[in-house]
């Protein structure tokens, strides 16, 4: 068996080979989460040749190689190059567009024009709808795999559009310079993609290629960050007795993370901890950065810091751990962030909790900061579903490091105020929020937003000073116009909208039947301390009233409750 391997980058791979993804390969399957990770790795690559792993190829013809391992990455990179090519064309730079297209489609040594990456599993869709630069020869309807290809194309297109919009909105760039700035940013992205590095493993035939691939993938998976880092600490911290300091500390760290009610990935924790203290990084790049920074002199301190941070980290995701009864506002904000399913805030919040536990900032300062983060992500993420181009994550990492570096409560206060100002500047407009708020809906047949709806009703109840206990878990969601009577005048979206919903105790909810409003309101008026006044004052309940009340609640939410800055 002859094996040849070489270090190459994407540009050299695409200019010297034609790569064929055979029909027997698994279909393209990258989800938005995979695309987001890849995008962040490319965007935040600070000039070094970022390593994307190995690719196993076998000779299948003149200048042509079959792809055994690496087809998902190759396909994704090709899609991104096509989006960048189209973007160059959209700003009028046909030379750069054509130059990039030459890496997507070019002539072979017989002067026959071919696509550099050819896939049999999604032919002809991939070629016609994504790779092709001139007019399509025919229309193709996407099947399951091809829908993922189309989604990836749309994902990267949205990223580029957001980049262009940020340049258009940047008042520091003159109108005549905006086009040049767009071209410059596209060139930067293009070069980052083309300089991605990989190990090219080449074999003479397909059978040999699969033998190598099987060997690489059945002798244990690649070491995770936690394994690499533990090994690094073990090499640096010498045992001076029978006590294995590294093993004991590492066991404590993992035990803390494993005690959480939710799954806490150690590699993600390590990345967040480091980003909150020293330098923003991704999981893929973390070990390289940590290995350079952690040496024999500081290894013991760094290991203790990770163990310490694991306990703070646990309190973010299991708020019942590490907080007293007098800190319920803190717990409430942390729980809200879990409802919103956000992650980019974690380094910043970890730094806040650390500062509080070390008495650098007071509970009051922590509550203020967490409330601002909660409010922002309610508006930005939970309701309007805005997408960040990466600036949000960078902002939180930068904030976490700045807070970690200060040595006084006054300085910490300045850093926190600066974060809140930035959040306030980034929050969506009132019109964006109102439009999205009106789309929130909850019925028994549409429970996707049930946690968000309950959270909104709780905050509204607190704002209206309704007489509920602090434990909202015993409350149920009541539809004023009942779900059982959904019809053409009262469609499910309207019945499930925020204007038709209130909170009631389980006991009160059971006692109120699905009667018409004139009968139901009689029962509701007996609950004057726990039912909103505008409902008690109503003599009828119409679709128009529900729509109006939804809009009014949205105004109150944006202007009075989730304000971000106080």
Annotation, overall tally of beta strands: 10
Count of domains: 3
Shape: globular
Span between termini? 70 Å
State Rg.
28 Å
The helicity comes to 55-70%
Question: How would you write the strand order of the largest sheet?
Answer: 1-8-3-4-2-7
Fraction of residues in β-strands = 5-15%
Low-confidence stretches: none
Average pLDDT, all residues: 88
Query: Main β-sheet, in a few words?
Result: 6 strands, mixed
Helix-strand makeup class:
alpha/beta
Number of helices: 25
Tell me briefly what this model is.
This protein has 25 helices and ten strands.
Describe this structure in words.
This protein has 566 residues and is α/β, with parallel strands linked by helices. It has three domains: 3-218, no CATH class; 225-428, no CATH class; 434-561, no CATH class. It has helices spanning 10-16, 32-43, 71-90, 94-101, 125-131, 144-169, 175-194, 206-218, 225-236, 245-258, 266-277, 283-293, 299-317, 328-340, 346-357, 363-383, 391-405, 409-426, 430-437, 450-463, 492-495, 506-511, 517-524, 533-536, 543-561; strands at residues 3-9, 18-21, 51-61, 64-69, 105-107, 113-115, 117-119, 197-203, 475-479, 501-505. The strands form three sheets. Strands 1-8-3-4-2-7 form a six-stranded mixed sheet. The protein has a two-stranded antiparallel ribbon with strand order 5-6. A hairpin with a 2-residue loop joins strand 3 and strand 4 (64-69). The model has no long low-confidence stretch (mean pLDDT 88).
